Amino acid sequence: MTDRGPVDATTFADFVAARSGALFRTAYLVVGDHQLAQDLLQEALVKAYLAWPRIRQDSAEAYVRRILVTTAISWRRRRSFHERPTEPDVRPTGVPDRTEELATHDVLWDLLGTLPPGQRAAVVLRYYEDLTEPQAAEVMGCSVGTVKSQVHAALAKLRDRLGPDLIPVDDEVVSS
Length: 176
Fold this sequence. Notes:
The protein is mainly alpha-helical. It has 8 helices and no strands.
C-alpha cells in the first residue's frame, strides 16, 4: 500500500474544496435526489481518496466523475434503491414568470428519472454537463458508439412521451 503523507491529503483536500460543487451537481443530475447525491458524492470521494496516490492530478475530476457514474449505475441495480419515502420531493421554485418553463422542466425531470441508468447518465453527461461524446464515454467507461446509442435511445423515449415540440428532432441534437 502506498504511504499517504500530508502532501497527498493536502492536495486531495484542495481538490475537494475546488471541485466538490461541480461534482455534487453531476451526482444530483445522475440520481435526481439531493440526499442520494450527497451520499453518492461522499462514496465517490472516499473511493478517490483511497486511490489518490495513483490518480494523475490533471485527470482527477474525470476519474471522480467516472466513479460517480459507475457507482450510481450499480446503486440503481440494487432492489433497495427503488424504495422511496412517501413524502413528496420538495424542489426549489423558480421565478413566477417562468411557470410554463418550470412545468416543462418538472415533466422532463420526472421523465429523465424513468430512463435506465446508462441512458440517464449519457443524457446528463452530454446535455447537462456539456461533455463531448468521447469525454462522456471516458466517464462512463464505454465506447463512443455506446454513448451515441444511449443518448439516441433516451431522446427517442423522451420524444415519444413529450412530443417533438419539446425534444426537437434535428441533426444538432441527435448527432452532436
